[in-house]
Every structure is written in structure tokens, then in C-alpha cells.
Amino acid sequence: MRHHNSVFHGLLKHVPWATFERLVDRHDADRRVRRLTTRSQLVALLYGQFAGAASLREIEGALASHRGRLYHLGAAPAARSTLADANARRPAEVFAGLFAAMVAQASRGLRRRVGEAVRLVDATSLRLAGPASEWARFSAAACGAKVHVVYDPDADRPLYAAVTTARTGDVTAARDMPVEAGATYVFDLGYYDYAWWGRLHDAGCRIVTRLKVNTPLTSVEERATPGGGAVLSDRVGLLPARQARSRKNPFGARVREVRVTIETGKTLRILTNDLDAPAQEIADLYKRRWAIELFFRWVKQTLRIKSFLGLSENAVRIQVAVALIAFLLLRLAADAARSAEPPLAFARLVRANIMHRRPIDTLRHPPPTVIHDPRQLAFNGLET
Hints:
Largest sheet: 9 strands, mixed
Strand content: 15-25%
Strand order of the largest sheet: 3-2-1-4-5-11-10-7-6
Mean pLDDT: 89
Distance between the termini: 21 Å
Number of helices: 14
Helix content: 25-40%
């Protein structure tokens, strides 16, 4: 019978291991390591993501039962205490660097002309609880972290991620995000900062966001709008000279306000620096923000990002990075297998078959049984 590697092995084939080893060397992650290498740590954590393991003890037991198959992955079983120590102390930059490298690798075939790329910017909150989460203290009663993401809705994958405490403002984290010249950036009120808008504008980016209800706009041009649609008005104007009493507005370019009504009857003031596109196109771009909300929901429901295996800052950063790596591996494996399954259904099939020896492209339909014994063929009436 033909030999097949496990589904887990098929997923890990998409990890750029040479890049990973360079990151391990760069950050001395395996220095003085006796028991658990960084590679074994990554394999253990990825197994936990794909299998839905709820604890380090569950990961330990499952991997111990599959010791032989781990050998072919260049990894070894992980003791619970050793894995906990590695998560707390090993450089999180290794895993964040691997995520960034995989994003770059996956994006090579998705290059678009300048102006076609859409980037959604948002953050999601992670609630933490326990003595080790004091680094993320938000209030007297709560601790929490945030994951800030730049997301490509056309490729359905994150392009950038950063973890901060929940006290960190969204726009504060956005200032450290890389800016892709010429791209369209779509974001909500959490990124209300004229200086950051000006930085995007100066880079040739198109901005699509919301104006606050009480923000005045000095109108310089009123434009006609088609009647009967969601677009209520369309005008060009200038933002206030100051964002606050003590801050001068560095973004003095003309902008455009498109007022639209949504399904709930609420009216939104959408702002853009694109003075030429049809008003409906601007409204549709802002509506695409929903894609990143669906991404956050999918990751929290499918991967281990709501409950944590360790609560120290380093452990949380590692787990978030590994969850995003797992997301990319699922997308890459589904593309390679040409799977027609919806992402959630594909992830469930992977979870149910994670250590089974079978090709990933046969998860929905099992491969046919190949019989080589002539006596068995005769018994089955198949011999000619």
C-alpha cells in the first residue's frame, strides 16, 4: 500500500524551515537548550492550534502518543513544564519573524497594480486573567491585550500584526505599522488622528474612514448625488485647522465627505481623500471593513486565541503569532489541495484528521483502497 504522511506533516510542509532556522540563530533561541528545541516548541504549539488543545497537558499527552510521527517532523514530544518555560522565556521575535516571512512569501503571487491594493486596519481585544497577566492591567478589575492587524480582504489573510496592552490606543499602534505607498487604507473611528491621515496621504495612499458626528467640515464644493440610493450627499471641504486646542492640524489637503444611510437607518459620514471616485465606490470600500471583523471572529472561534496557554507577555505574543501562522498554513494547504470547502469546514476537517496518514486533498472523500494481493483480487471478483 502506498505510504502517506500525516495531515499534520502536510500542513508543516508549507513552513519555510530554512528561514525559521535563521531566525532561531539570529535570536540565539536554542542557546543552552537541552530538552526542547525552538522547532519542537513551534510544532507543539501548532499542533495545539490545529487540534484545538485547551491546555499544555493536553498537548503533552497527545504528542507523546504520536512520538514516532513527530520524529519524521524533526521534532520531539514536549513536557508540559518545559513547554511552559519555553513560552515564557524564548524570544517571541522568532515566531513573529516567521509570520512576517510567510506573509511575504504568500504575497509574492498577489502583487497588484498601485491603487488596487485594499488594506483594512483594526484591532481586537483579548481578555486575560491571572497573576501572570499583570503586565496587561487595564483597570482594577480587568487585564487585557490587543492584536492590531492590517488585513488584505482580497487575499483573505493578515499582512501585519502587533500585540499591545489593552490600554494602548489603536492609532498609537498604527503609527508603527508599515505604510504601503499607493494602497487604499480603510479604518474606523479608533484611528482618528489627522497627523496619521496626513502621513498616509503624503505616501500617495487613499484613505477611507469615518468622520465624527461633531467634526465640522468647511465645504468648498457640493456635488450632485443620484436619488433613491444609500448615498445622501457628497461634498468636498477642509478639515478644522486644529484637531484639539493644543494641536494644529498637519493635514490641510482637501477631503471629501460622503454621507450614507445603512440598513439600520443610521447615517454615516464617510471621509476620503479621493476626490474622483464615484461616491458609491467610497461607500462600498468602507463597507468592506466587515471582512476584518469576520477574520477576527474566525480566528477566535477556530484557533486558540481566546484562552491562553501562558499569561506572561512573552507567552501571549508567541501564542498570537503561532495562531496567525496556523491560519496562513490552513490557507496555503487549502490552496495547494484546491479545496472547495469553506475555510471553517476545511479547518474542522483538518482538526478531525490531524494525525491521520492521508493526503490533505482527500479529507472530504477518503482515498480509494488499493489492493495488491492477487488472492484478494480474486476473492473480490476483480481478477481478469
